Sequence to fold (367 residues):
Amino acid sequence: MGVRDSEAGRPEGRGAPVPIETLRVRCNASAKLWQRMFGALTLAAYREAGAETLRKLWWELEHEHHKDYFVPGLKKLGIDKLPPAVAAAQYHYLTNVIGGLAMHYMEESPRKVWIRYCAPAWTYAGVALAGVPQGVRRHGTFSSWHPYNGVSMGTRRLQWVITKMMDEGDPYDEGYFHEVDRDLADSELVRCQPAERTPEFDPAKAPKFDPADWPEPRLLKAKRNFSRDYTERTVATLYAMIGTHRTHAVVRHASRTMAVQLAQELQRDLGTTGSDVDAFVRTVAGILDACGQPYKLERPSAKAAHFVLDGLLPFKDPADELRDAYFQFFVNAARVLNGHLKVERTPYRRGAEQESWTIEDAGRWLW
Fold:
């Protein structure tokens, strides 16, 4: 839910400009990859360490995002002078629209403004939402950022009221910011008050991006970085919570299972469908290009390919064990698409920060 539109990795437009159609495909594919990775990491953490760890993970992630992004984001979006309830609601509406979420915004008054996170749940694709433990989203996700918006804007009179939650059977996540007539204690900054009937959304009254400040390329890159940041921060937070080795186990499991669910869909998104070695090389190259990942590609033969990577996005200076855990996505994607493909990784050289991936058609069934 942060505004992050700076570029990392190999910048688009160095040399010949990237056509907008290509930029759309790349940014949407990388946003999907990292969005699904983020969701997979949270569920794998639950599997590894339990419901309390998942709740704490969500709390830490959202609270840190709030501290880093909220006040700068108000200024970046040009909404820092609005009334507190309006500014808070517009911030969450606009930043989540950038991230690819379907959102509603309903301004009942300058002191009471609703926001709605519409179906499907951004974090948990498919039926994964059904497995989220009760209370995690209410007491983790939606109690760690929204209630502190007013304090960050210099007022203790802004309350966040939660009215509906998807994981509890409601059709969407929903709540409203309410500016009250007295200062609130810490325990009063968030309140849960289920409501059966709530305001209808009118798209004509929703906040809009100024196309001069937010042209489509900037929005696309910000969408990609929105998902990237969640993936990167989740791993960093898990390191602090459950330690290095358990975090690598979580990343490895998330990478492997996500490949099972996502490899074919990503191929369709990138237009690299097919199961032979050429199609898979195009798929890997397409994913790396989409992510802005620097690499070199060599084709020593028609049956083999060799990638050399500088660094490994979305991570900054990742340990080799983390690189290998994330690489399991590509290992399992190859197995899903063609049981004859062998995908191997040579660890990076310290100082050079490079690693190599080899893809080869073994000419026989391997799995």
About this structure: Residues 20-49 form the longest helix (30 residues).
